Amino acid sequence: MKHISKYKVELSVIIPIILFFIISIISIYSTKRLLSIEYQNLWIKQIIWYIIGFILAYSTMHVGNKFLYNNAYILYIIGIILLVLVLPFGVTVNNATCWFKIPFIGTIQPSEFMKIFLIITLSRTINDFNDTYKNPDVIDELKFIIKILVIVFIPSILTFIEPDTGAVIMYLIITFTMLFIGGLRKRWFVLTLAIIIIFLGLFLGIYYLNQDLFIDIFGTSFFYRMDRITNWSSSDGLQLKNSLIAIGSSGTTGHGINKTPIYFPEMQTDFIFAVFASNTGLIGSLSLIITIIFFDLTLISYASKSLNYNDKYAISGIIGVLLFQQVYNISMTIGLLPIMGITLPFISYGGSSLLSYMLLLGIIFNISNDNLRYTN
Is the terminal CB of the chain with fewer CB neighbours within 10 Å at N or C? Predict the structure, then answer.
């Protein structure tokens, strides 16, 4: 006889998250002796963020994915309001105004939570369109694309002003992934690619041929960000240089826990992979990468098996942003890509980043729960 089990999650999801938790705490703890006194308790704060995150994830199971999709546009508006308010009322760090200062808690970054609201909203929008138009014509698709562009354009502009270029890129990754899985005809992707190539050509042409005009159009701040990106391969920055030294000297088994040999900026956040690699060597690094791949393949399996199209679109957006952050973060740590403020999901220190992914994990928990809801 079958019975309903209200909250159950498959081990293929739970085990990787537990491993990520252990790796995160060990790695952040290992930054203690190289960071100033104000950063000595980050590993304890990360434990607290994880506890809060699990509470939020299981709270998401309580309200259910259907509730999120039904209230998608309300959540989207809340996200936009937060992005607007952070510009005049947020705190500025390294010339970026991306955070609210919350007493006794720390800082909260609205752009991290906008990823969630965008995934939920796009899932609802794509599903509504596919339910309404079984065989849409060009005009129907064009109207749909314009609606999607408006939804994505508003938070992208607000986030770019902060500035947080990495978050804007993640918004675009989410959008393209979800539209592709949502069944949008390939001609629109080809057209979009052609437009991007044309504008990128004009953009880079102005940057390289007339830098004064570039600054007049895009501003000095964005010029310096572009200068940093275009010169990354030939630069001899302390951050990348010391990261490569830490990783390269770790050998097969690493230097040991809390024995990272050299300091590099943002080692607790953007460069946490270098810390873990230096502590555990090649064996530990490969183990983490294998765990990440296993987790991602599990999510891909959920997306392919799900009969609920809202869930299918949402999990595709989650997979898209996870893959992007994982590949980009590890690649920039070892010098394959330009350095940007992109963290390693579930591993890097950061309350907003971790909580946003734990909320997304709640959506995944709901899908896993649906798979196990009826048991013998």
Answer: N
Take residue 205 and report the two structure tokens written for it: 């042409």
d(CA 306, CA 325): 24
Q: What pLDDT does residue 206 have?
A: 84
Structural domain harbouring 135: 3-375
Joined together, the tokens standing for residue 29 give: 């703890």
- The angle, 0 to 180 degrees and rounded to 10, between the axes of the packed helices 220-230 and 211-218 is 120
For 185, the 3-state DSSP assignment is: coil
**What's the number of domains the chain is made of?**
1
Q: Determine the Cα angle at 353 with ends 110 and 302, to 5°.
A: 110
Q: Which has the closest alpha carbon to 42: 356, 353, 351?
A: 351
The answer to whether the beta carbons of residues 98 and 164 sit under 8 Å apart is yes
Whole-angstrom CA distances from 209 to 49, 202, 205, 225, 278 are 47, 10, 6, 17, 42
Q: How many CB atoms lie within 10 A of CB 112?
A: 23
3-state secondary structure of 97: strand
Mean pLDDT, range 342-349, rounded to an integer: 92
In percent, the amount of the chain with pLDDT more than 90 equals: 42
Model pTM?
0.86
How do residues 212-229 score in pLDDT, each as one tens digit? 877 777 767 666 666 666
Distance from C-alpha of 347 to C-alpha of 365, rounded to nearest angstrom:
19
Distance (Å, rounded) from C-alpha 196 to C-alpha 179? 17
Strand-by-strand arrangement of the 106-108 sheet: 91-93, 96-102, 106-108
Asked if residue 49 lies in contact with residue 355, where contact means CB atoms within 8 angstroms, the answer is yes
**Residue 231: which pLDDT band, with cuts at 50, 70 and 90?**
low
